[in-house]
Design brief:
Helix content: 25-40%
Number of strands: 9
Structural class: alpha+beta
Order of helices and strands: EEEHHEEEEEEHH
Number of helices: 4
Oligomer: single chain
Length: about 170
């Protein structure tokens, strides 16, 4: 069959096996934002205000947490994202050496905005956040078709609020 999927049926009507032609691509594991001097000045002012509040109100634990958080934001901001290998096939969604099997995923949707496109996956695991994977716009329809065979597509077509916040704050 020439299309994106092949269907093989056995003698039992309930044992239809769908064989998917895999799609693979590379993308950075997360969006890296360029921070200018204004961002660092604003961040410094906010941290200084938080530290001042902590000293005035004698909130020593909050002061320690603020220092650790500020250090982590600055340190993590210096890291560059790794280029990840992604693939969707009969087994599920591969992210480098990690496999997310289809039975571990509830739903998916593709979000677009600000010259960005992401495949969003919701896991069946209770504490796992939404998994957002960068995709190329030319692969959008093929990814939607392949995943649509195995997973329901959510009617949510926008990025998650935490992703918007991260993009606006450039963290």
């Amino acid at each position: 069959m020439d299309g994106q999927e092949q269907v093989t049926k056995s003698s039992s009507p309930q044992s239809t096996v769908v064989l998917l032609d895999p799609i693979a691509w590379q993308a950075e594991e997360y969006e890296a934002y360029r921070r200018d001097m204004k961002w660092y000045i604003g961040f410094g002012v906010i941290v200084a205000l938080m530290l001042t509040y902590c000293v005035i109100t004698r909130q020593w634990i909050f002061l320690a947490l603020t220092v650790v958080m500020a250090g982590a934001v600055l340190l993590l901001g210096k890291l560059q994202p790794k280029v990840m290998q992604y693939q969707i096939d009969d087994q599920g969604v591969h992210m480098n050496d990690k496999l997310l099997q289809f039975d571990r995923l509830k739903t998916f949707w593709i979000s677009e905005g600000d010259n960005r496109m992401h495949l969003n996956l919701i896991s069946t695991a209770k504490l796992m956040p939404i998994i957002a994977i960068k995709i190329d716009p030319q692969n959008k329809d093929q990814i939607r078709m392949i995943l649509g065979v195995r997973l329901p597509e959510s009617n949510r077509q926008h990025e998650d609020w935490i992703d918007k916040l991260n993009r606006v704050l450039r963290v």
